[in-house]
Design brief:
This protein has helices spanning about 40-50, 55-60, 70-80, 95-100, 140-154; strands at about 10-15, 20, 30-35, 65-70, 90, 105-110, 110-115, 120-125, 130-135. The chain is of the alpha+beta class and about 150 residues long. It is globular, with a radius of gyration of 14 Å. The chain starts with 10 loop residues before the first strand and ends with a helix.
């Protein structure tokens, strides 16, 4: 996925086991953040960061969607535990992760594993990819996305 590409529509189950399509948000900017695993330290910092600026992102006219390879049940538990106000999507079969190219080889305790590289995509109201935030550091990331969203809308 490159900036200015049209993001293909996709459908995933959310934390309530409802099917969510990207096209459900047509006409609205979407903050789509991929995180490695629900309820792990970095992912919790990132998800809570988006929770804490959620109202400001809404005020800027955008929606937030989080995606990981967790099951809908694990997403629901994570969402409830941290009172996350936005949908968490379950990409168990990695279709959307592959579409966005966020699965990377990682080194886990000396063992090579394939995992999600923390990445955020800012998608315009017409599904044009406006910005990619690769290799995200969880601390302060949501504020960075909010500032970018505001600057793009000017």
């Amino acid at each position: 996925m490159e900036v200015n590409d049209i993001v293909p529509d996709f459908a995933l189950l959310d934390d309530q086991e409802k099917t969510i399509h990207l096209s459900d948000y047509a006409g609205t900017p979407v903050v789509l953040f991929f995180y490695p695993r629900a309820d792990t330290p970095g992912c919790t910092i990132e998800a809570c960061g988006f929770r804490d600026v959620f109202k400001k992102i809404q005020k800027a006219g955008a929606v937030v969607l989080g995606i990981s390879r967790d099951t809908p049940k694990a997403q629901a538990k994570f969402k409830a535990k941290y009172d996350l106000p936005y949908p968490l999507l379950a990409d168990v079969d990695e279709k959307v992760c592959n579409l966005f190219g966020v699965l990377k080889e990682k080194n886990m305790y000396g063992k090579k594993v394939k995992g999600i590289e923390r990445t955020t995509f800012l998608i315009g109201p017409d599904r044009t990819l406006l910005k990619v935030f690769p290799k995200v550091k969880p601390e302060g990331h949501a504020e960075e996305v909010l500032e970018t969203l505001k600057s793009i809308q000017k």
